[in-house]
Amino acid sequence: MSSTFKIYILAVLSFLVGTSEYVIAGILDKIAMSTGVSLVTAGQLITVFSLAYAFGTPLVMVMTARMERKKLLLTAIGFFVLSNVLAYVLPGIGLLNLSRIMMGISAGVVVVVSMTIATKVARPGKEGSALAAVLMGFTASLIFGVPLGRIMATTYEWKAVFGVIALLGFAAIFLIALLIPRIQGEAAVSLRKQVALLKEPRVMIALSVTFFWIIGYSIFYSYITPFLLTSVGMHDSTLNTILFVIGIASLIGSRSGGYATDKWGLHRVLKTGLGLNAIALILIAFGAHAPVLLIVMLILWSIAVWSLGPPQQLHIINISPESTGIMLSLNSMVLQLAMAAGAGVGGLVVERISLSAITWFAAAAIVLAFGAVNLSQRKNN
């Protein structure tokens, strides 16, 4: 079996766990309605997943550092499948939150181990492409997973989304068991060593770019479905199309961000992307009742948001090239914490101000990220 096919299997697995994280944003209103809770309470499902991912994944990876990688991956998929089964069968928002905690931890481990295995099974010199393929699966969950989840929840019920993810995850267990070779574990990197870098100002400033950028993204995207349905008055059928278009735009943004970084440098791309991001959010607020402007700005927003991924990853690596693995691990943790914080801030804005105000708070977070980029650039000159 070719190494390319094995990597594609890992990419599909990444797509499944990415869908489990992002799909809540597409079905938030339906979960709130069926469980009898507010949008803010339902939005906590995003927060608990991200917190579990951020704190649980590093702990599990440290504790299982010496475990054979294929065995660890199969175990993580098993818990991931179980968590989706629990989300499908258990009643009430409280038990759903518990399933999301298990889902977040297991999803994080699946992604990290999948990337590790991908680099091991790839042909020599193709490790970067292997990593990109696995990460592309995560991006594809925005393009296809979220709108498909919305369509499924509209046609059947929202719980069906988790049932299907569980079935596909169960099938993945057999494919992984049959096709992925055994790969030995590695020496553990202590949590103390991981957090020691946080004492360095340059590292903290670089990570703050990720933190504020993702908070801005999460504030808006966590509540994008009720925003478009309620504040904008969009029809359900139109929403499905818009979610799909936004997903395609995210892929374009990621590709263009990588190309632009190579051509113009990471700081220029970060500033341009953040600037366009803030402008798009403000124009979305003003153009909520102008359909053409709204759609154009949503596309611009999605492209701008995801164009920041490649330059920020390079930014993080360049801050401490001798500690690339630890820096990327810390960046991943900060990203998930920001996802949780953004969903929480968005919930407070919806509850205490208004649903339409989320774009302004998202834009404010992006402005802070822009300031962090400027500060980081000065520190490195």
From TrEMBL:
<keyword id="KW-1133">Transmembrane helix</keyword>
<dbReference type="GO" id="GO:0022857">
    <property type="term" value="F:transmembrane transporter activity"/>
</dbReference>
<protein>
    <submittedName>
        <fullName>MFS transporter</fullName>
    </submittedName>
</protein>
<dbReference type="GO" id="GO:0005886">
    <property type="term" value="C:plasma membrane"/>
</dbReference>
<dbReference type="InterPro" id="IPR036259">
    <property type="entry name" value="MFS_trans_sf"/>
</dbReference>
<keyword id="KW-0812">Transmembrane</keyword>
<feature type="transmembrane region" description="Helical">
    <location>
        <begin position="72"/>
        <end position="95"/>
    </location>
</feature>
<feature type="transmembrane region" description="Helical">
    <location>
        <begin position="130"/>
        <end position="148"/>
    </location>
</feature>
<feature type="domain" description="Major facilitator superfamily (MFS) profile">
    <location>
        <begin position="6"/>
        <end position="380"/>
    </location>
</feature>
<feature type="transmembrane region" description="Helical">
    <location>
        <begin position="357"/>
        <end position="375"/>
    </location>
</feature>
<feature type="transmembrane region" description="Helical">
    <location>
        <begin position="274"/>
        <end position="306"/>
    </location>
</feature>
<feature type="transmembrane region" description="Helical">
    <location>
        <begin position="101"/>
        <end position="118"/>
    </location>
</feature>
<feature type="transmembrane region" description="Helical">
    <location>
        <begin position="202"/>
        <end position="225"/>
    </location>
</feature>
<dbReference type="InterPro" id="IPR020846">
    <property type="entry name" value="MFS_dom"/>
</dbReference>
<dbReference type="Pfam" id="PF07690">
    <property type="entry name" value="MFS_1"/>
</dbReference>
<keyword id="KW-1003">Cell membrane</keyword>
<feature type="transmembrane region" description="Helical">
    <location>
        <begin position="40"/>
        <end position="60"/>
    </location>
</feature>
<feature type="transmembrane region" description="Helical">
    <location>
        <begin position="160"/>
        <end position="181"/>
    </location>
</feature>
<feature type="transmembrane region" description="Helical">
    <location>
        <begin position="7"/>
        <end position="28"/>
    </location>
</feature>
<keyword id="KW-0472">Membrane</keyword>
<keyword id="KW-0813">Transport</keyword>
<feature type="transmembrane region" description="Helical">
    <location>
        <begin position="237"/>
        <end position="253"/>
    </location>
</feature>
<dbReference type="InterPro" id="IPR050189">
    <property type="entry name" value="MFS_Efflux_Transporters"/>
</dbReference>
<dbReference type="InterPro" id="IPR011701">
    <property type="entry name" value="MFS"/>
</dbReference>
